[in-house]
Structure formats: C-alpha cells, structure tokens
Design goal:
This is Glycosyltransferase. This protein is α/β, with parallel strands linked by helices. It contains six helices and seven strands, in the order βααββαβαββαβα. Strand 5 and strand 6 form a beta hairpin. Helix 2 packs across helix 4. The N and C termini lie far apart (35 Å).
Length: 209
C-alpha cells in the first residue's frame, strides 16, 4: 500500500507563529516554542517513516504555509517539500493537499500539523492501519478540533462549511461523515499547543531525556 503523510508547517518566523503564545510571553519565546514543536513533530514522523519501511511504501510531504526553506531542519530526510495553496481558508488548503497526493497514486493519505507535543509514531501507524477498514480516520483534539485526518479518496464535504479553529469542528465533521454514510474511526484524544498554558501543561508531560 502506498501511504502518504502530509505535514502542514510554517517557518519559525518572529511574529508569524504561535501568536496566542506570543500574547502571553512575547514573539521571541513563541518562536522558541514553535521550533520545539517542529523538532518534536520531525522526530515522531521520522520514527514512523522508518518503522516497517519495507512492508509498505511511505512518502512524507511537508506543505509550507508561507515559503519553502530548502535548508531547514526538514532537509536531508528524504521528505518532499511543497507549498500550500495561497488561500486563507484552512479547509481549502487541506482539500487541495489531499487531492494532489491522492492524484499521485497514494492509496492512504493522512494529514497532521505541527502543534501537538503528545503526538507519537504509533498514532500515525494506527491511523494508516485503520484506513484499511474505514473511509475516514480522525485524531480528536481536546479543544473540539482534530490533530489528524486521513482518507483513501477525496471526501470534499469534510472541508466545506466547517467552523475552522472552533470547538464545534470535530462534531461537525463527524456529523457530516454520518450524513454521507462514510465509515470512520476516531483515535486517541490529544492536546494541541495553542497557548502558553497549553505548552506548560504538555511539556511537563514529556518524558525526561
């Protein structure tokens, strides 16, 4: 099976990332937090990428929201780099990314962001595994959204008429899945890091190195 993981990221530019964190501790600290999130996400994805690599064909595509940096920390890992379409709506950007990867013969596609310190490689492995039996997989976030979405074919309704970044997003998504008679699997609920309080809570849960 051809498995493609889409990762939505930004470059760690002062004043452009983690603005809700910056509102509490300033832009410089917000950049440091986002760099830590990027490093964590990269470690998790690389771990997933290497596990059972011979058993299935895996592809990781980093989709940038601002500009592609050819010499950043995602370089040299064998991952592709692309730009998200220049549209303000998150749903439209996600839909375009799914459509592009599915059109390139991916049989299972999963998307994640770079905001979740609780994400682990097994969450990715399980999502791809569950796509063998379900049309859609979702990783719910405890703020009412989701940190992971996966599918085997493009379901446009998942990206239309949704309250992006609102606590009703997951409920709206599941209701639409039921209305369209698509089977779905919902994974473990995790927490995204959107505020300084989120970061303090989630970083305290990380295992000591």
């Amino acid at each position: 099976m051809n498995c493609t993981l889409i990762v939505f990221v930004k470059n760690p530019v002062r004043g452009k990332v983690k603005t809700r964190v910056a509102a509490t501790v300033g832009d410089e600290k917000a950049v440091e937090v986002y760099i830590e999130l990027l490093k964590h996400t990269k470690r998790v994805i690389y771990e997933w990428f290497l596990v059972d690599e011979a058993a299935q064909k895996k592809k990781v595509v980093i989709y940038y929201g601002d500009f592609i940096n050819p010499q950043d920390s995602w370089s040299g890992l064998g991952f592709l780099k692309k730009m998200q379409p220049n549209v303000p709506d998150l749903g439209a950007r996600m839909k375009a990314a799914f459509e592009e990867e599915l059109n390139e013969n991916a049989e299972r596609v999963v998307i994640v962001g770079s905001d979740c310190l609780a994400l682990r490689a097994h969450h990715l492995s399980q999502a791809f595994s569950e796509l063998q039996q379900h049309d859609i997989v979702l990783g719910p976030a405890d703020d009412g959204g989701y940190y992971l979405l996966g599918m085997k074919q493009l379901h446009r309704f998942l990206f239309e008429n949704k309250s992006w970044s609102q606590p009703s997003l997951l409920a709206e998504t599941l209701a639409d899945a039921q209305a369209h008679s698509t089977s779905f699997w919902v994974g473990e609920t995790l927490s995204d890091v959107d505020t300084w309080e989120d970061y303090l809570r989630e970083s305290a849960r990380l295992p000591s190195s």
